[in-house]
Amino acid sequence: MSNEYILETRDLTREFKGFVAVDKVNLRVKRGSIHALIGPNGAGKTTVFNLLTKFLAVSSGQIFYKGQDITPLKAAEVARDGMVRSFQISAVFPHLTVLENVRIGLQRQLGTSYHFWKPESSLYQLNERARELLDEVDLGSFADTVTVNLPYGRKRALEIATTLALDPELMLLDEPTQGMGHEDVGRVVELIRKVAANRTVLMVEHNMNVVSNLSDTITVLARGSVLAEGPYETVSQDPRVLEAYVGSTEETA
Questions:
Q1: Closest C-alpha to 85, from 4, 164, 190
Q2: Which of 36, 178, 193, 237 gives 215 a disulfide partner, CB atoms 3.0 to 4.6 angstroms apart?
Q3: Strands (E), 190-242
Q4: How far from 59 is each of 3, 28, 37, 76, 102, CA to CA, in Å?
Q5: Distance in angstroms (rounded) separating the CA atoms of residues 217 and 225
Q6: Backbone angle region of 129, left / alpha / beta, with phi > 0 → left and psi within -120 to 50 → alpha
Q7: 3-state secondary structure of 231
Q8: CA of 98: how far to CAs of 26, 87, 94, 211, in Å?
């Protein structure tokens, strides 16, 4: 495996009781790039994410991360090695403040993640770094806001901040703009561009405007297989992609 690629899959396959959800997918993600994984509903995009991050076991094939075969590893092992993901559904603690949410992500650095009997004051040393991360995602003024009171788009930004707290080399973002209005989408696009400056991003995304704005490389899935790959200008003109997206591109553009 070339050092040029931080992530590579070889014939990645996942079956569910005879149904092949992911069918021999070969994916290569360049270091320092923003790589989009797109396709119609049911194409297998989130299943690929679940396989990469070990939330699902691989039926056959291999996954290489930073040159190492991680196929047999567990989710926690992969995350500790710098591959960290977000989810389609909001995954923050609604009744903690924005600052406290990010601090939980940073707590691993202290080796006290499971020391629930320690006083909250033991975590105050993380506040400065937590505030730096909040500033990075334009949430500095929301630090003391209880998370349940955040607008939806700001919650997604908070998820990115909590992901950054784990110091990822590879960020996997699952539908980062799903359900957002135009203003929030624009804010999150700029945020992803900003945080991708020093790391690699692999994202599943339906919004074609977001994909065309952000992506260096696009992999198109259909029925669990790779249909096309390349820059947006090439992929968007591929007749097979246009056929797979009949009606879909108009809905998400």
A1: 164
A2: 36
A3: 200-204, 217-222, 225-230
A4: 26, 19, 20, 20, 35
A5: 17
A6: alpha
A7: coil
A8: 38, 18, 9, 28
- pLDDT tops 50 at residue 249: no
Domains of the chain, CATH where assigned:
1-82+168-253 (3.40.50.300), 93-167 (no CATH)
* pLDDT tens per residue across span 140-197: 999 999 999 999 889 989 998 998 888 899 999 998 888 888 888 988 899 999 889 8
The Cα–Cα gap between 208 and 201 comes to: 17
pLDDT band at 206 (very low <50, low <70, confident <90, very high): confident
- Assigned token pair, 245: 């997206």
Q: Which whole-number Å values give the CA distances from 101 to 82, 133, 182, in the listed order?
A: 19, 11, 26
Distance CA 65, CA 7 (A): 5
